[in-house]
Amino acid sequence: MAEQTHNRWQKAAVVLAPVLMLLFCGALLVLCAIKPYEKLTTYLNIVFMDTQKIQDPNAGLIIKDKDINTDYQGNTSAEGSVIYPSFGEQYAVLKSEAISLNVPVYWGSNATLLKKGACQPSGSSLVGAQGNAVIDAHVNTFFADLAKLKPGDTVEAYTDYGTFTYTVKEIVYFDKNDKTYVLPLKTGERLTLYTCVADVLGSSSERVAVLCDVTDKQFYETPQSEGGETE
């Protein structure tokens, strides 16, 4: 009887051994997978957070208001270098006596900055540089009278590195999906100011742009310091 029992245990061991070995290997695989899974989960969370930051226009936004000098008395030159601002920094002041325009210009564009002044997309050229300097603002705030500018009117742009005078050449109307007037220029230099066309019934798909040629460039021999910042 004892011998029969012993034989049964031997047979059971032979059958169960592969099963137990399979379970043991499976457990090892699960344990080994835990750490990589944690790393993958962490990575996915980081990617998701970055996506959220991209979708949030104010993520990381640091607004930098400055007191731009519009009455520079130092030496100037017709040639010089522009100074690139950081995103969210006020880098210029636009003025035009023809429509009593006096508005700060911020580098970069989003809803928050558009509440503070005019905005310049970072893909366009800085004022004073070759290319197309594209600046826009809301028609119900800072650019309310933009369409009243006429060919021959002047617009001045004041920065920390120079003062630049532009003369209005043309007023054009275009659809919001038409990028003709806001794209970079292959050659030449232009200031493009644009806004929505006012519509009492709601948002308009039409835009108005003021195309200006540069007529005077005065680069400061001594650029203004960062001391003009305001809180």
Name some characteristics of this structure.
231 residues, alpha+beta, disordered C terminus, nine-stranded mixed beta sheet, 2 helices, 26% helix
How would you concisely characterize the structure shown here?
It is built from 2 helices and 9 strands. The protein has helices at residues 2-55, 111-116; strands at residues 76-77, 90-96, 101-107, 118-120, 131-136, 154-159, 162-175, 189-196, 206-220.
Walk me through what this model shows.
The protein is α+β, with helices and mostly antiparallel strands. Helix content is 26%, strand content 29%. Strands 1, 2, 3, 4, 5, 6, 7, 8 and 9 form a 9-stranded mixed β-sheet that branches. Helix 2 links the parallel strand 3 and strand 4. The C terminus is likely disordered.
- Helicity level: 25-40%
- Number of DSSP E strands: 9
Give the mean pLDDT. Answer: 81
Strand fraction equals 25-35%
Q: How many helices does DSSP assign?
A: 2
Described by strand count, sense and barrel closure, the largest sheet is: 9 strands, mixed
Question: What is the H/E string?
Answer: HEEEHEEEEEE
What's the end-to-end separation, in Å? 97 Å
Low-confidence stretches: 33-54, 227-231
Structural class: alpha+beta
Q: Which value, in Å, is the CA radius of gyration?
A: 32 Å
